[in-house]
Structure formats: C-alpha cells, structure tokens
Amino acid sequence: MSEFVYYGDPVQRPDPVAADAPRRFYEAVYLRDNPAGPHEELWYHANGCRGWLRVSRDTRTHDVLGASFAGK
Amino acid sequence: MRYSLLALARQAFRGNRHWQPVWRDTEPRPSYDVVIVGGGGHGLATAYYLAKQHGVRNVAVVEKGWIGSGNAGRNTTIIRSNYLLPGNEPFYERSMKLWEGLEQDLNYNAMVSQRGVLNVYHSDAQRDAFARRGNAMRLAGADAEMLDAEAVRRMLPFLDFDNARFPIKGGLLQRRGGTARHDAVVWGYARGASDRGVDIIQNCEVTRFLRDGSRIVGLNTTKGTIRCGKVGLAVAGSSSRVAKLLGLKLPIESHLLQAFVSEAIKPLIPCVVTFGAGHFYVSQSDKGGLVFGGDIDGYNSYAQRGNLPVVEDVCEGGMALMPAIGRLRLLRSWAGLVDMSMDGSPIIDRTPFNGLYLNAGWCYGGFKATPASGWCFAHLLAQDQPDPVASAFRLDRFETGHLIDEKGQGAQPNLH
C-alpha cells in the first residue's frame, strides 16, 4: 500500500458544450505529451491528508522539482 | 555461419575468441525502400519478414544503442496467448504459432520451451472469469485447460494451497505457452534479416524526420541523412519521444517495468506460474535462477531504474504464492521502459503522415508478441493494409471508441 497514488497528467476538463467537444475530450482523455524530463503530474495523498498535489518531477531521474496543492 | 559439434569443440579449445559474427554490422547507405527505427525484437522481426515474406530487401534497421539493448533483453521471456478479447487473442495466437516454428524458420536455437503457463485462481468468481477466458482462447484456436486444485497440486505441490486469505482453488493452464531465450530471438532475427540483405545499423539515433509536405522522405540520424520510401517506428518505450520529432502526440505513457532474478537453485518450477490474487509471475531459467516480475512502478518514467515499493510488492506476491522461496536471495533486478497505451493494447497502424507507420504501445507484453508483431508490421509496411489479426490495433481507436481494454481499467495506463 502506497502513501501516494499517481494520477498522471493534470488535464483540464474541456468545455462540454464547445462545438468540437468530442475532439477536445479525446485529446484530454487519451493523448499525452509523455516527456523525457520535467513532467507536471497529479498525486493523491491517499494514506495521509487526502490532498491532491501537483508535482513537477523529472522523468529521467525521478527528482522532484516542486510540489503544490492542486486546484488552487 | 554453420554450427557443428566439431566447430563447437574447436572454438572451446581456442577460448571461444574466434567465433564469426552471425550478422553484418553496417554503416548506412544513402537510401532505402524501408527504414525500421528500433533494433529490438520487433524491429528486427519486421525487417526479417519484410525480406522473407514480401521480398522487400532494400531495408535498414537503425538502432540508437546496440540491438536488443532495450526491452528485448529486459523482459521475463514468457510466451503465451491467453488473452480474452477478440481484438487481441487471434493476434497472440498467431504469435504463439510463429514461436512454435521459429527455430526451424530461423535455423537458430531460440530455446523455445513450451513448458506451460499456469494462472492460478483463488475464488469462485475468478474461476468463472478464467473459464470464460479459456473458452475465448479455444475459440481463437489456442489451447486452454481448467485445472482443479488437485491437478495444480500434482504440478506444483509446494504452492500455499491453504493460504487463509487466498487459498488456491485451481488454475487455467496453457500447455503450449512457456519461455524463450530473449537474446537469441534478437540474434536469430538479426541473422535472418542480415542474410537476406537487410542493413543493421547500430549507434544510430534518429534526430529529425525529413518531410515533403505530409510525406516522410527520409531521416536525419547521428550517422548522417538516410532517404527512404517508408519508415516504420518500432521503438516501444520511447515512442512518444520519437513521435514528438513530428509534433505527433500519442495515446501512450512511458512507464517502468521491473524484473528480477534469484540465485540459482535446483529444478523447482516446471512451468510459468502466476499468482491470481496479486501480480506475480515466475519461471525458472535453465541456469536455475527464478525469473520473476509483477506490476509496473506506476508513474511516468524514462529512468530504466525501478524503485523499492514494487520490489517489496512483487516479493510479497511471491511469498503469498510459494512461501518455499522465502530464503532465496535476489541476484539482480532491473527495469525496462514500456509504452503503456491508454487501453493496455498495442498499436500497429498507419499515422497521419504518409510513409510513416507505427508499431507501439506494447505495455508490458511485447516479448511474446515479437514474431506476430514483426509479421503484421511487415505486412502493413509492404502492402499498406493491416494483417487481419492485427486490424484492431488502430491508432484512431481511442477517438472512435473501439478500445481493446482487457482489464477494463479505462484510460489510466498505470492500472493496465
């Protein structure tokens, strides 16, 4: 059991009434930048304060470059 | 290169220093009909079948490192075709059949060992799910056998059958599944491709795609410019990085999958066995070490180096299934980069660019797919039409909704 749970890219929910909503939802749900280097991502503090964190982490080294509460 | 007992004896007395390379390591020529990017099992198999099945011999395989240095040499060598969904199972069964004839086809010992793959189950609900999967396998021409607890006990008497939390109730056995020597698969395909005129170019990284409008006409590499008619990408683990050179975003995240090998022991495990209540799979190598693995680490990474929580989780799975291995020491562990696709299934398809073809998204199951992946990718490259067994592996299925989600996890790659 992990203290933190990974949730992946912090994608914004697209506007559901936009004319091109299906395309935007497809891109938001399925397409990823998947960079080798600094990556913005969401972590859930599941076995702790249950807060959502927005973490910047280098995917080549696993170094955490910064973290803040998400949704601010 | 011919092998014989005499040659073996002669080389042994000469310190094994005089073996000839079995494939040509070449520098790039200015142009090719087809360039395959990625010299792993899939890329080399593609080149081999292009030359052998389709007569396309003006082919190069360009590899950033050395051939087989990525996931082809980092997997746990398991081959099987025990999938459920109609988009997947016929493809993996094609692969299984190609495995069965691989050594004769390549004239190379890949140590294909059909020792059986047994998935144990621990509850009535899991039994029903496994029965359904076994039926789906048989419908696609594969073999599957439901075993009760007694039959499993006869095969593997040392499992923890009476575990209070996860008692073993039986298993789903695919007798034709098993293992193969992963490096030999790479070398065998490399030799077969090289013999048929394919150029294998190592230490050659693609830095830019040359375009004429939306058509790909060549590649800039660290060994110069190569013009070509078609490009096939088989760079799973780094698919997003290569696609990014063209501004193409893929439905893929790169994750870590760890593998482990224990110190060598006398023969214990006669087949591949997987734990049904966690994620743990194990087989025993011919050297005696237990080769095993479990879940991916679960976060995007290009580090090729895993972390300890998964080591603990995998070892707990092993202990829950077979407490007898508790005193064994781990010899080595390592990690490979896997393309985790958004539905857990691969992509073999055309791309929005003319002349660019994609073979990606193999998640943690690429090794067993090697022969069929090469077969189907070669078919696509040569004929511009998908092979029927790979026709569901479309790049646009995420947009059209025709997902192939074996686990039913949705668009969360770290859970597939």
Please, could you describe this protein's structure?
- The complex is a heterodimer of chains A (72) and B (416).
- Chain A has 72 residues and is an alpha+beta fold.
- Chain A contains 1 helix and 4 strands; from the N terminus they run βαβββ.
- Chain A has a single domain (5-69), classed as 2-Layer Sandwich (Folate-binding fold), CATH 3.30.2270.
- Chain A has one helix spanning 21-30, and strands spanning 5-8, 38-44, 52-58, 64-69.
- Chain A has a 4-stranded antiparallel β-sheet with strand order 1-2-3-4, with no helix packed on it.
- The two termini of chain A are 28 Å apart.
- Chain B has 416 residues and is of the alpha/beta class.
- Helices cover 28% and strands 26% of the residues of chain B.
- In chain B, strands 1, 2, 8, 9, 10, 11, 17 and 18 form an 8-stranded mixed β-sheet that branches. An 8-stranded mixed β-sheet of chain B has the order 5-6-4-13-14-15-12-16.
- The longest helix of chain B has 18 residues, at 89-106.
- At the A-B interface, α1 of A face α7 and β12 of B.
